Amino acid sequence: MHHLTLTAEDNAELSPMLEELAKTYATIENRELIRRAPVLARSLPVRLLEFLEEYRIGEPSALCMVSGLAVDEAWLGPTPQHWRDSQYDSPALQQEIFFLLCAAVLGDVFGWATQQDGRIMHDVLPIQGHEHYELGSNSLQHLSWHTEDAFHPCRGDYVALMCLKNPDAVETQVCDVGDLDWSRLDIDALFEPVFTQMPDNSHRPDASHATGDPLVDKLRARSFALIQSWNEDPVKGPVLFGDRDQPYTALDPYHMKTDGWSERSRLAFQGLCDEIEAHMRDVPLHPGDCVFIDNFRAVHGRKSFRPRYDGSDRWLKRLNVTRNLRGSRAWRRAADDLIIY
Domains along the chain? Predict the structure, then answer.
């Protein structure tokens, strides 16, 4: 793991900037704040900037963690009951801004019209009634390991998580595919574009509601219709891509149909899954931890836990980050629009 711990001096340097920005912007979803983030990030401590740049360019590990950010859990108040309850008057706004600035060093943040009503920064917390769903808001069942948004051609380069609360030290599970023994696997078969990737449940319209903007609602309806078409007729593609000696991955076994796969493809895929399972490791996140997971070089999931629903539950923030925003231009309304429809 690529790891840096912020010092008391770092926090003292960061505090005035974060406090001032939190006074200037009422919500992390403010588009001016998000547009300015790459410029504002230059005011982060130099050693932190160098650390993040080394991770971005050198790929020393699939997992990058910045820990030690000051978090006052008493100031945070209770964990929200739902992600809709957290956008405005956030007691974690200063931490959210720090998280956003770190992400802006690695690339451009973006959101999905089909997730959390098009927000850029998501909340990851247990929601009553979701205990057994295959969603990040579940609790009593494991969240199966996966590439984030593996089905979509515009998936991010990184999925980032910031911990605000985790009283039970619930483990995020990660496998760095750089640890795999590729000599045991049928690489050629895994590079073949024959594997079906279906949309995951977080992109379904069940939790969505109208925004009141006719154009936005029309575009979102089109996005949900496309998601549905991909569910009915899954797109085929490879699960490995890039360099054959150090390949990148894109797979989400829970949302993949094996119907129509050849025997060789099934065996190759099962071999890859077994190798990933053998190299999965637990990463418990603590308040103030920001972890950046290389979505091309790692898969991630989460162990089950028993929710309390009393305001003390595990509470994370999540960002999607891309290093090629132009690659999704056909999916966005304008060059400076960060929502994929």
Answer: 2-175+283-340 (3.60.130.10)
